[in-house]
Every structure is written in C-alpha cells, then in structure tokens.
Amino acid sequence: MKKTLFTQIGAGKGFYGLLAGLGAVILVGMLSVYHMEHNGHWVTGMTNQIVWGMPHVFAIFLIVAASGALNVASIGSVFGKKMYKPLAPLSGLLAITLLLGGLTILVLDLGRPDRLIVAMTHYNFKSIFAWNIILYNGFLGLVAVYLWTMMEKRMNRYTPVAGFFAFIWRLILTTGTGSIFGFLVARQGYDAAIMAPMFIVMSFSFGLAIFLLVLMATYKCTERPLGDAMVKRLKNLLGVFIAGVLYFVATMHLTNLYATEHHGVERFILMDGGIYTTLFWFGYFVLGTLAPLALLYHPATGKSRSMIGLASALVVLGGFALVYVIVIGGQAYPLVMFPGYEITSSFDGGVNSAFYAYSPTIYEVLLGFAGVAITLAMTTVAVKNLRFLPESLADADVDPH
Amino acid sequence: MSDSKHTDQARRDFLNNSAKLAAGVTLASGVMLYGVAHARPAEQPATSEVRWGMLVDTNKCAKGCDACVTGCENENGWGQGSNDEQKSNANQKAQWIRKVELRNTATGHVHSLPMMCQHCETPPCVDVCPTGASMKRADGIVLVDKHICIGCRYCMMACPYKARSFVHEALEDQRAHAPRGKGTVEACTFCVHKLDAGEGTTACAEACNTEGHKAIIVGDLKDPNSEIAQAVAEYATTQVRADLGLNTGMRYRGI
User: Fold this and answer.
1) What is the pTM of this model?
2) What DSSP line would sit under A218-265, residue for residue?
3) Of B94, B102, B159, Cβ closest to residue A341
4) A147 CA to chain B: closest CA distance, Å?
C-alpha cells in the first residue's frame, strides 16, 4: 500500500472562474445585508410572529452540516477505519468553512450586527445561545488543531487524541444547536428533548451529502482519480444516515401524535399547513428521503456517479426543506395561550389569524446564498494553497480497511 | 476667559431658574408632592421586598374598548403615540400591549382582556438571552437593556405570551423615559418610569380607570395591605399558562 500523497490543486481558468462566480454571489449578498441593516428588518419578510426567517434556515442548515462534515475524519481517527484517513483533511476543512458560512449569515441578520463584540463580552450562562458562541469558537479551534496534527508530520501521533476531542465536541455542539429549539418550552412545535439527537443525525446526513458532492466535484474538476470503492463506501454510509434521520423525524411526530395536546401542531405540519405540509411530505420525505434511498441502493443507479451525486444533492435539498419546516413551520403555528378558546387579537391587524404567514424577500435569500458561497470560496482557496487533497483516491491507492 | 465666565454665569442662571421652576411645579401639584414623597431615590436599587403585579378583572374589561392600548401608546411613544414605524407592516409594528377577544369554542361565551409582558418570576426570555440584555429587576419587572441587546430575537422565540416586539426600522419620535431603537427588542416596561417616580400605577390602568371600567389594579403583591394583594387573596385569579410554572406578575380574574 502506497503512502497517501497530499497536494494542492492547480490554479487554472476553472479555479479563477469559480472564485469569480462565488465572489459575485458574496458581493450581492453583502449588498443585501447593507440594504437590510440600513433600512431595518421591515424590508424582510420577517415579522414579530415569524421572528426567524430564511437567513436562519440557511444558517442552521450550514451549522448542522458543519459538524456532520467532520464525521468522515472522525471515522478515520476515532474509529480507526483506514480507508477514511486520506479524506480526513478535507473533512476537517469543510467542517470549518461550513460553520463559518453559517455563522456569517447568523451574525449579519442580527438587529445590531455592529454589537457583535457585546456578544463576546457579555455572557448569560443560562442561555443556550451563549453556550453556542463558546461551542462554535471551540469547535473552530479544536478542528484547526486537529488539522494541524494531520498535516504536520511531527504532530501525527497526536491526531487520534485531537480527533477524539473534536468528535466529542461536535456531538456537544450539535446537541447545542438542537437545543436552541428543544429548550423552547412554550412552543408547540419545539419543546422536545429528541430534537438534540435528531439534529445530530441530521448533521451526519447533511454533512456527508455535502462532503460527497464536494469530493466528487473537486476530483472531477482537477482530474484526480477517485475510485469506486471509496464512493461506494461513502454512499452506503449516506444511505444509513438518511434512514437514521427518517427514524428520528418519524419518532418525533409519532410521539406528538400520541398526545392529544399536540394534535393541533401535528395536523398543521402534516396536513393543513400549506407550504409546510408540502415541504415536509414532498420536499423532505419524497425528494429528500425516498428518492435518494432508491437512487443509492437500486442496482441500476447505485453504481452511477451522477446518480450518487443527484442523490446527495437531493439529501441537501430535502434537508433544507426539513430545516425550513422546523424553523419557520414551528413559528407559523400559533402559541397556545388559551386552550379551548378562539382568539382574535389586535396584534395581527385585528384578524382572527389561524396561522402566521411568512414570505421571505429576495434580500434574505441572497444573504443565505452568500453564506453558502463563503463556504465554497474558503474551501476552494484552502485546497489551492494547502495540501488538503490526496493525489489519488483510486482503488489501488486506498487501504480498503 | 471672559467667554467661559460668561458661559458659567449663563449656566448658573439656567440651573437657578430651572430649580425655581421645578420647585414651583412640584409645590403647585398636590399629586406630584405625594408622588415625590414615595419615589425611590435614583441611587437606591430596586428591592425584592416589592413585587409589582397587575390584576385584570376580565368581567369588567369591555369588549371593543382599547383604552389601555392607546394609553400605553401615548405614554410610551409607540403605535399612535409616535409618528414612527410608517414602513413596517401590521405584523412588524411594535405592540407592547394588545386587546385579545376570547371565544369559548364549546359555549360561545366571549371575553376580552389585555395581553402584554406577564412579568414572570422566572422569565424564559431572560433565560435564553445570550448577552443578559433581557433582565428582571429585583422588584419583578422584566425589561430589555437596549444597550446590550444585539437583536437576535431568541427572547421572542422563548416568550410564551408573544409579548415582545422587534423594531423593524429607524425611529425618531420617542419619549425620553421610554428609549427604543432599530434592531432591538422591546416590550411592556410596567411603566417602570412611573413606578420609580412613585406614581404607583401604569398608563394602561390609568386609561382603564378614566374610561370608568376600573378593570386593572396595579400594586405590590408582597404588601398585604395593598389593594392587589387583598384582591388576589380574596378572589380566584389565574395566571396565563400557569402550567409553565413561571409565576407571572400579571393575574387575571374571570378566565
């Protein structure tokens, strides 16, 4: 077995073209941010009812995916699977860039982004948000150290230790992200301890899907060999993760369906919720779960690179739909303040509003795309300048164990 | 040199005249004199020996009447009490207090009540706030420190009463005692400026009394001689979403 050789990618027209494209998306996103922050949030679709909107869907999706992207490295270092070791640097890199992309969106959507320093200097330790600030920064630091132990030969012997701590940290981090919602006792759509482990399994699935897409695209564009054995191993793992997410989503809804108290919100999400119902069943369940499972495991499509790529892309889209349903759908269902009463309030323009409406404006969407572009641009620049990628992942060059 | 002397003299005159004017106004108004006697000095912190509370008798609260809302708007400078928030839509405009009509789906019985910050003893908004901008005073009043609010809106996600509003645009027309700001979160302050000045009541309660409904009683729940403490001891009262165990300072009768 040859030793894995890591090298930078070359910088051709494709490289600069990609960076220019991503730069344009980032620029447009920053102009949107300026517009939003200059005018105030009235230019967005967000309201006093739907207080977290499209930017938060993008941000939470990226942050969840970030911790999941580290999984490939963890399987190598922590669980000793040799086949995954050559993939570990890219896995760590994506974990960092996805997190930074997500956090950028989150920070730029704040009502007062200029006060970010306040968030760093004033901590309320009972707030899960304050913990998350520490968890995110700690994650970035730990993964950076982990990458250093991998990429600096003299430090290689510390890789398993660094990998172990990064793995534990990422589990806590995603628990924190899930708990942002799980701890909201007053909201019918949230307030469930299962949200923490559910977010962890979601991160496995979304993170691996993004990893697969980036890996296949990079190796295709740089014309480096990527063997079928590696792709097959990863796509089978993705299938397991997709099923895992389905298990948690099903368990959460079935638990709620058992309790009469929660029938209202379940009816809303699963039957009467309009866009949320469509996104849940068609977006998440059919397109994001059944279709990729079929594509990955069916003998006719399971060996095709493009079909595996399509399945991964569907997992990303389905995951996005699921996060949308959780974040926005959970707010669109009104708080139950007076059980047994029908409520009319002047808060909603005097209308007897059954559910709260939300339609995102273009500025929110552009900010979200900018976050994705920041992730991809940072990844591209990093693999160009540092030795993240193995020269070859051909079947003959990777240890199948 | 002569300039600064001149300025000093002018300042002295101004302070002198202001003091006379203030003394005149204070002495001219019996209510004010009474108020100042009970006001808490600025350097003295709020004390936990007081728990401000409010009791709403929904049997007296008139359907269709929104005097408490307009009273709050005019006192605190939001809604019709301000020329701001012209760009925000109905769901984006601030709403510190709102009238809610409840119709019992089984019996058809309708009642009406004001909803606002319930000033919980253990407020979820304070728990989740990352910077500590959401805070509770020792006397039970829940407030937002506008200087350290970063506008993340997590408190709005956590509030069981939908009592908080986010300011969606720049503001200019404000009251000195109720500062507001674009990109920060705000809610009912329990008219903290009036209580600290010793007025012992809130704008909503005053407006309700002016209308003759007298549905709102404000007072110290810990003072056994206060009207509110005696009322909650005598009658059955309810906390909205008492199941959450938040021990709200707001109590309702008749729901």
Assistant:
1) 0.91
2) HHHHTT--B-HHHHHHHHHHHHHHHHHHHHHHHHHHHHHHHSGGGHHH
3) B102
4) 30
